[in-house]
Amino acid sequence: MIQYIDQQLIVPKTIDFENAEQIYQSGLAHIQQHQHFPLIVDLAQLEQGSTLSLAVLVQWLRQTPESKGLHFKNVPEKMLKIIQACHLEDDLILI
């Protein structure tokens, strides 16, 4: 599931229909315990940047102060294209 290492959420290599709810809940628990924002979400291990994985990230973002409490790093190329196609590049902070 989600790991919390060096003040970053580490997303697992796969988010699919079988585990999306578990990953969402696991990440949400970390976000709700977090006191200081922004929180970095590292996507380096994520193998497929699908619309489903992006939906999980957006739902997490909505649970943060002013919906701006997450910064995303190591975003997969495919996910970057989905973000651009959905015009989300102004809503997501990519580092």
UniProtKB/TrEMBL annotation:
Protein name: MlaB-like STAS domain-containing protein
Database matches in InterPro entries: MlaB-like_STAS, STAS_dom_sf
SUPFAM superfamilies: SpoIIaa-like (SSF52091)
Pfam families: STAS_2
Gene3D superfamilies the record matches: STAS domain
Residues covered by the MlaB-like STAS domain: 12-85
Native species: Acinetobacter parvus DSM 16617 = CIP 108168
Domain of life the protein comes from: Bacteria
